[in-house]
Specification:
Catalyzes the reversible isomerization-deamination of glucosamine 6-phosphate (GlcN6P) to form fructose 6-phosphate (Fru6P) and ammonium ion. It comes from Reichenbachiella carrageenanivorans. Belongs to the glucosamine/galactosamine-6-phosphate isomerase family. NagB subfamily. This is Glucosamine-6-phosphate deaminase. The chain is an alpha/beta fold and 244 residues long. The chain has one domain: 3-Layer(aba) Sandwich (Rossmann fold), CATH 3.40.50.1360. Helices cover 32% and strands 16% of the residues. It contains 7 helices and 10 strands. The strands form 2 sheets. It has a 7-stranded parallel sheet with strand order 1-10-9-6-2-3-5, sandwiched between helices. A 3-stranded antiparallel sheet has the order 4-8-7. Helix 1 packs across helix 2. The protein is globular and about 45 Å long. Bound molecules: 2-amino-2-deoxy-6-O-phosphono-alpha-D-glucopyranose.
Length: 244
């Protein structure tokens, strides 16, 4: 779906999420959301906060699982994704703290594998993700599944690509300060979500959007694995769609 701009697109995505939350609430069921960070979802979260404040949208039945976190960072670091989520969404809505799940960047190296298995099991214990929101990196990553990530990959520690660290350096003092590793849900974890919405905005994303939508499926561009999913919408603005 191509929108004139990211604002229009974000309102449509926020409405879909709000509708899902309300339909689950009406049935007294939990709504299991997979959430993303980066610049792309910021306006979606702002709209959800507005709906909470102005329309009484409640997050009390929401359980959230974030895609990823930089290894070594935690809530006290402004660049951490847990900080991002509290700043843009969690601190402004009535989600229950115990229902917030963001991979920890502070697990000792020797316990990472076990921690990641538990993250997967926790998602499964709720019956899987109802909805997964995604951005896309210029390497073709979803979450932090960099090139080389397999279709069946699960939550794990990865090494960030040069381009990703460069693209994300703006949030840090310098590129050297961008962590080299991260913990991310796998491509396989993401593909198990019942519904997926992926966003890309701006000219800089045009090349990777074309590869993701029209290219051959390959571990070189992990986002291409979304082609196998039965219910995914790629939402973009005209700039990101220009080469399609
Ligand atoms: C980071 C995140 C991804 C996100 C990507 C794109 O690398 N780990 O989940 O999709 O950035 O970010 P943006 O939306 O700012 O372009």
């Amino acid at each position: 779906e191509v929108f004139e701009g990211s604002d229009e697109a974000s309102l449509v995505i926020a409405q879909e999420i709000a509708d899902l939350i309300r339909s689950r609430e009406a049935k007294n069921e939990k709504c299991i959301l997979g959430l993303a960070t980066g610049s792309s979802p910021i306006r979606v979260y702002a709209e959800l906060v507005r709906m909470h404040k102005k329309e009484g949208l409640s997050f009390q039945n929401v359980v959230s699982f974030n895609l990823d976190e930089y290894y070594g960072l935690d809530k006290t670091d402004n660049q951490s994704y847990i900080h991002f989520m509290h700043y843009h969404l969690f601190d402004h809505v009535d989600i229950l703290p115990e229902n917030i799940n963001v991979p920890s960047g502070k697990i000792a190296f020797e316990h990472i594998a076990e921690y990641c298995t538990q993250y997967e099991e926790k998602i499964e214990s709720y019956g899987g993700l109802d909805f997964q929101l995604l951005g896309i990196g210029r390497t073709g990553h979803i979450g932090f599944n960099e090139p080389g990530s397999k279709i069946s990959s699960t939550t794990r520690m990865i090494t960030l690509d040069y381009l990703t660290r460069q693209d994300n350096a703006f949030a840090f003092n310098s590129k050297a300060d961008v962590p080299r590793k991260a913990v991310t849900m796998g491509v396989g974890t993401i593909l198990k979500a019942k519904r997926i919405v992926i966003m890309a905005y701006g000219m800089k994303k045009a090349e990777i959007v074309k590869k993701t939508v029209e290219g051959e499926m390959s571990t070189d561009v992990p986002a291409t694995f979304l082609q196998t999913h039965g219910d995914v919408t790629f939402v973009m603005d005209e700039n990101a769609a220009k080469d399609l």
